[in-house]
User: What shape does this take?
Amino acid sequence: MRVIRWFCYIHLFLALGIWCFELFNMILEGNYRFISTGELWASIDKNSLVGLQALIENNTWYWLWWKIIFPLLTLPAWVIPLILGLCALIINLVSKILQKK
Assistant: This one.
């Protein structure tokens, strides 16, 4: 359960950090422009993003990239770690409740 708890904390703090970075940029620039997940990934390693796209389009279903993964990459960068952290938090809370019974 500690692993799930740490997974939760890391992802929630990551989401908070990305959101604070966007807020800081909003204060500096005067307008809010969210950083998409794909934009963040491309700024870290563009070749891996392009390689993943080619791998998915050529070796799996073509629609998987455009219907599922691409919309996820257009979400704000803080949404994905927030969802993962909240899911881990729910799993952790449910497991604690089940252990008490």
Summary: The chain has four helices and no strands.
